[in-house]
């Protein structure tokens, strides 16, 4: 198996098969193994899990047990991470958007590292977390990613220099630079360009007497088991991405000292392929659309508002365990709510599903462990959030 292949663990499939009711199952051993694989690929990198991808106590605890830190985006998230056993020194406040109160609350929790991208935010950190370390987020294009995350976050290289100088003037410690190349980034080039930009800003800052201790290469590492909008495996070039990151680290250390530290904030990469949903068929129906054409629709009990939020940009792998050899028909897949966005968009390809699916038949949604819990509503239309279940390797 290459690093870039999706692998559904027998444990996870067995847990899905054993589930008589709908649930989301996390394979904790799979998550630990993915973390360890990442550490092997990028030795010496400080991995801080972007917990919004899976804010589940058991998942945080298993990663904390392996030594992972956490990238938190609010005092509540950071508090949850600390409760799960992450040492406060291995956390940072990675959100550039925060109120005065958020900063003060995080500071009270003991958090001493804050992301920033504006002079206003630096002034607020200086006031409410005096003496803290700050790292400045540089904007990226988001090109090559399924979700770009550009625009709202990060600043230009010129502004980064101004912001870090302002931080120093206000008694903060300018400690690093960060980027996020966009979520589910599919190209190694995104990291190559990010490193070039980081190198330039590090050099300018050094000339102004600001020597940074770390570079945070953010999240964006892909999940392996998604299909694109037309149903073809996305197949991200993970080995190449790791090679480019290693090369980038070598390059930056050569220019800025061997003691330059690296941080990574993977979210979906650690959890997506190790979580899966057991749901069921609400109905397979054939309806005439506005164009007069008849079309199959597969309505699942699970959709955009209770586990499959990202169905607007990808297709999930579906398994129909009770119909392994059935005749298939092309269908639009949709969730159960009264919201028309709760469906694969028109532009998506159709999904081939067994023709004789009956209401209640189980359906497994693979590689759905990331951003499922965090984007679940409080029972929109009365469709409750999925209960969690866990599986892990039995240790003798
Ligand atoms: C969401 C987020 C991440 C994780 O992104 P993934 O694409 O899931 O890896 C990392 N860092 C920050 C600051 C984020 O907001």
Automatic annotation (TrEMBL):
Pathway: Amine and polyamine biosynthesis; putrescine biosynthesis via L-ornithine pathway; putrescine from L-ornithine: step 1/1. It catalyses: L-ornithine + H(+) = putrescine + CO2. Pfam families: Orn_Arg_deC_N. Its EC number is 4.1.1.17. It comes from Streptomyces cylindrosporus. It is an enzyme of class 4 (lyase). The lineage of its organism: Bacteria, Bacillati, Actinomycetota, Actinomycetes, Kitasatosporales. Belongs to the Orn/Lys/Arg decarboxylase class-II family. This is ornithine decarboxylase.
């Amino acid at each position: 198996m290459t690093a870039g292949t999706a692998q559904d663990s027998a444990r996870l499939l067995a847990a899905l098969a054993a589930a008589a009711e709908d649930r989301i199952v996390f394979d904790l051993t799979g998550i630990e193994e993915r973390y360890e694989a990442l550490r092997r690929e990028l030795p010496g990198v400080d991995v801080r899990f972007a917990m919004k991808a899976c804010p589940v106590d058991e998942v945080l605890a298993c990663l904390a047990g392996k030594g992972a830190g956490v990238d938190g985006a609010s005092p509540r998230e950071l508090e949850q991470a600390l409760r799960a056993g992450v040492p406060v020194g291995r956390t940072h406040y990675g959100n550039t958007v925060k109120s005065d109160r958020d900063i003060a609350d995080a500071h009270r929790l003991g958090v001493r590292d804050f992301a920033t991208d504006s002079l206003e935010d630096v002034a607020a950190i200086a006031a409410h977390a005096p003496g803290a370390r700050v790292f400045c987020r540089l904007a990226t294009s988001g090109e090559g990613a399924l979700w770009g995350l550009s625009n709202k976050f990060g600043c230009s290289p010129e502004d980064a220099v101004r912001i870090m100088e302002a931080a120093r003037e206000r008694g903060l410690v300018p400690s690093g630079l960060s980027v996020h190349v966009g979520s589910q980034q599919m190209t190694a080039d995104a990291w190559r360009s990010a490193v070039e930009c980081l190198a330039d800003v590090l050099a300018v800052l050094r000339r102004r007497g600001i020597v940074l201790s770390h570079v945070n290469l953010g999240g964006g590492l892909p999940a392996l088991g998604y299909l694109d909008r037309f149903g073809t495996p996305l197949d991200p070039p993970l080995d190449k991405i790791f090679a480019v990151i290693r090369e980038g680290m070598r390059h930056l250390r050569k220019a800025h000292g061997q003691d330059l530290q690296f941080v990574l904030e993977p979210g979906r990469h650690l959890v997506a392929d190790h979580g899966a949903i057991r749901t069921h068929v609400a109905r397979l129906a054939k309806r005439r659309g506005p164009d007069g054409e008849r079309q199959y629709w597969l309505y699942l009990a699970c959709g955009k508002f209770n586990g499959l939020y990202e169905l607007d940009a990808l297709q999930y792998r579906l398994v129909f365990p009770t119909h392994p050899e059935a005749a298939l028909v092309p269908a639009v897949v949709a969730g159960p709510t009264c919201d028309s966005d709760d469906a694969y968009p028109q532009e998506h390809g159709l999904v081939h599903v067994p023709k004789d699916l009956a209401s209640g038949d189980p359906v497994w949604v693979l590689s759905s462990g990331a951003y499922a819990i965090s984007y679940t509503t409080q029972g929109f239309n009365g469709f409750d959030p999925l209960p969690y279940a866990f599986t892990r390797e039995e240790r003798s």
